């Protein structure tokens, strides 16, 4: 655990700069607008260690899979997000010397991410010889116009001598990925154009041998300043620069605004169309002031916060944590583009390749259902439907029928090169089916499940029916050779969670098939023999259980391990994944994240209080929470069991996972999909929110350290406010038709 930022309700702010924490601070101050994003690296020269990362939604490259022993069915490539052309690059020179905080003497440092405004500012005072200047950088990625990046730099002479100032504004196509199999550039610069106060670069991803699309990106900058534009030579064939100069007397200041329009071939059929759009958008922005652009951006964020903000009184750490979660989640995805999804690192780093995982369906869908318009979540479901062809391919690679949705993907084709993930972590098929159910249950909208969703469910069910095998000895269907959500267990037999989801998916699909239209049923073409086989699997699925402990056994053989609780592990050996060999982890009983408890959370109303208690008490003692997705689920279950202190402890861990660097791995990017955890813990945990038979239920409690909390929730065309304080819980209908909810077993009617 390491805290590098101060605790504040709306700001991620620090007044300290330590070069050893540079990457950590870059991750924490990342910005995004759903279309693109960037780490909080410095715009200007910095000669120390840094990860300069800018990423564009849906732009990726197939990095060749490299393994020592090739296994049949391995994906040919591992998809990687591409580090984009650097369009925020700048140089600031004082009396001919560049500012470089890795070398310069400076003071009054402040780095401040304003989450309410989605604005990043950085300021410091630097001394170079007899010159002393105060420098302030500001930047935001507009959510009012997603192709727009805006920067502003202000330099003030705070010394007693005249200062010669030069500011260079650049776009540089000479970039590389840090996380790649081989050290090469992924962009070929197609053209450049350099003026005196503007410039652009068009670049295309390099050719690949796998037939995946190449992407073209265009970046055009316009600069506005009170300095004098200088005509300078182009630095290289990959970079354009505009240079501005002036002299500052003591107390004088100068300012440079940089607006960049970013477009990609994902939205344009030809390079000509892309270039025209880039110019037109740049022209539109040119007529607006910095304040106009910032105000439009702030208004969109204000609307988002109005729906989603969770207010916590009495615990500023908890307040900062939940807002940071929501801010980074919305910076990554807000549903504008159904072609996109939510990568585990979002736009904050290169780990996990920027691809889509099962995290979206299991963890993000419940949150987006509660705080956005239903079409946002529907887009996430459509994302999978549109990639069915890839899912067919993945199943065929394993010699199986139906559809296997990928563990890691950009285009529906599996592109992960670890055997235990690619081939074995097949529970993701069930998680996607559950997301369809979750959307339908929450919204009451059956239009997806009875059409596109029924197709997805049918093809997943065909996969499960082929993947199971029948054990003559046990007279049960089983699933061998899998990895469950707990990735510290590989190649196990009969993972309870996987078997449960396979059984449930088949059962749910059979129910939906009774409701689809005759036309849809004809297209799905599920025979009566198939239905009977599916029902037989449902009726005879093996689900490991131990009657003495009254627990669902995580997988065959789990109880034969050396069962010692986490409390017996020396502190200096945690986290395990940074201290133990993989072999030692696999042999241990230690659980990376909820596995059995993940299933109990999914179907929380289907288990008795005794079942929930015995399973939580047993598995919690062995869980190290070294997955960022883990603490929130345990928090909800702890709250359900009235283990209130434990629920709050786990909320604090999930809400501040990156802010406090709990797992010592935030340097390479934030855990974006885990940013759902704070909302899940508060709303499903502390407030006890459930949807039962189309009706909202709550059973709130107030954490001891808090004096009050409130949140707003979107539900079936209503906006409901939930307010919990020491006097109890209070509910208000902000928008929509009257609705009756259940609060701790009592019906409460809400009207405006």
Automatic annotation (TrEMBL):
Q: What class of enzyme is it?
A: transferase
**Location of the active site:** 487 (proton donor)
UniProt-recorded Gene Ontology molecular function terms: carbohydrate binding; hydrolase activity, hydrolyzing O-glycosyl compounds; maltose phosphorylase activity
Record-annotated Glycoside hydrolase family 65 C-terminal domain positions:
689-750
Q: Where is the Glycoside hydrolase family 65 N-terminal domain?
A: 14-266
Ordered alphabetically, the record's keywords are: Glycosyltransferase, Transferase
Q: Does the keyword Transferase apply?
A: yes
For biological process, the GO terms are: carbohydrate metabolic process
Q: Tell me where in this chain the Glycoside hydrolase family 65 central catalytic domain is found.
A: 323-679
Keyword Transferase set for record: yes
Task: State the similarity comment.
Answer: Belongs to the glycosyl hydrolase 65 family.
Put simply, this protein is called Maltose phosphorylase
């Amino acid at each position: 655990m390491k805290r590098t930022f101060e605790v504040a309700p709306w700001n991620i702010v620090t007044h300290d700069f330590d070069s050893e924490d540079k990457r950590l601070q870059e991750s924490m101050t990342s910005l995004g607008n759903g279309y693109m994003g960037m780490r909080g690296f410095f715009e200007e020269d910095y000669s120390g260690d840094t990860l300069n990362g800018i990423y564009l939604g849906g732009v990726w490259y197939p990095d060749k899979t490299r393994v020592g022993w090739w296994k049949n069915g391995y994906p040919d490539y591992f998809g990687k997000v591409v580090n984009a052309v650097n369009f925020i690059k700048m140089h600031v020179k004082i009396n001919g010397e560049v500012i470089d905080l890795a070398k310069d003497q400076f003071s009054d440092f402040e780095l401040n991410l304003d989450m309410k405004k989605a604005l990043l500012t950085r300021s410091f005072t630097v001394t170079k010889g007899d010159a002393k200047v105060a420098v302030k950088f500001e930047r935001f990625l507009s959510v009012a116009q997603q192709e727009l990046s805006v920067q502003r730099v202000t330099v003030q002479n705070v010394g007693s001598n005249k200062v010669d100032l030069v500011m260079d504004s650049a776009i540089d196509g000479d970039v590389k990925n840090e996380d790649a199999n081989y050290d090469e550039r992924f962009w070929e610069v197609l053209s450049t154009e350099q003026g005196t106060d503007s410039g652009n670069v068009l670049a295309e991803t390099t050719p690949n041998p796998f037939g995946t699309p190449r992407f073209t990106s265009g970046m055009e900058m316009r600069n506005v300043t009170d300095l004098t534009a200088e005509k300078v030579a182009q630095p290289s064939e990959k970079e354009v620069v505009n240079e501005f100069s002036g002299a500052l007397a003591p107390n004088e200041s100068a300012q440079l605004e940089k607006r960049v329009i970013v477009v990609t071939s994902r939205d344009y059929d030809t390079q000509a169309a892309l270039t025209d759009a880039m110019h037109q958008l740049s022209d539109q922005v040119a007529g607006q002031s910095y304040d106009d652009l910032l105000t439009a951006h702030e208004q969109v964020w204000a609307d988002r916060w109005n729906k989603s903000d969770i207010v916590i009184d009495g615990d500023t750490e908890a307040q900062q944590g939940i807002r940071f979660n929501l801010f980074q989640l919305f910076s990554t995805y807000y549903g504008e583009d159904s072609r996109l999804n939510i990568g585990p690192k979002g736009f904050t780093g290169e780990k996990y390749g920027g691809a889509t995982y099962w995290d979206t369906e299991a963890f993000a869908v419940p949150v987006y259902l509660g705080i956005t318009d239903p079409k946002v979540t529907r887009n996430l479901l459509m994302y999978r439907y549109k990639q069915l062809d890839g899912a067919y391919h993945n199943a065929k690679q394993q010699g199986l029928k139906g559809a296997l949705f990928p563990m890691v993907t950009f285009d529906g084709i599996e592109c992960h090169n670890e055997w235990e993930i690619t081939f074995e972590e097949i529970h993701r098929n069930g998680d996607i089916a559950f997301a369809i159910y979750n959307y339908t249950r929450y919204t009451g909208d059956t239009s997806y499940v009875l059409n596109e969703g029924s197709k997805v469910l049918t093809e997943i069910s065909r996969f499960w029916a082929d993947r199971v095998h029948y054990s003559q000895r046990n007279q049960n269907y089983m699933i061998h050779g899998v990895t469950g959500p707990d990735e510290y267990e590989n190649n196990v037999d009969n993972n309870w969670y996987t078997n449960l989801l396979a059984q449930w998916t088949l059962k749910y699909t059979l129910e939906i098939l009774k409701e689809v239209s005759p036309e849809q049923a004809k297209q799905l073409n599920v025979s009566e023999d198939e239905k009977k086989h599916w029902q037989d699997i449902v009726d005879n699925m093996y689900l490991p259980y131990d009657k003495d402990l009254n627990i669902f056994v995580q997988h065959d053989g789990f109880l034969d391990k050396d069962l010692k609780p986490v409390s017996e592990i020396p502190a200096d050996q945690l986290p395990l994944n940074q201290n133990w060999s993989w072999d030692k982890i696999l042999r241990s009983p230690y659980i990376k994240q909820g596995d059995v408890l993940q299933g109990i959370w999914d179907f929380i109303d289907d288990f008795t209080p005794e079942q929930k208690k015995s399973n939580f008490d047993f598995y919690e003692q062995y869980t190290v929470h070294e997955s960022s997705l883990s603490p929130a689920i345990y928090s909800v279950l702890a709250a359900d069991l009235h283990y209130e202190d434990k629920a709050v402890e786990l909320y604090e861990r999930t809400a501040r996972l990156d802010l406090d660097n709990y797992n010592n791995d935030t340097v390479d990017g934030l855990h974006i999909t885990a940013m759902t955890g704070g909302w899940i813990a508060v709303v499903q945990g502390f407030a006890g929110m459930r949807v039962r038979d189309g009706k909202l239920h709550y059973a709130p409690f107030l954490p001891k350290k808090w004096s009050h909390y409130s949140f707003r929730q979107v539900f079936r065309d209503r906006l409901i406010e939930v307010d919990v304080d020491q006097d109890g819980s209070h509910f208000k209908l902000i928008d929509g038709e009257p609705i009756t909810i259940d609060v701790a077993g009592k019906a409460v009617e809400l009207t405006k």
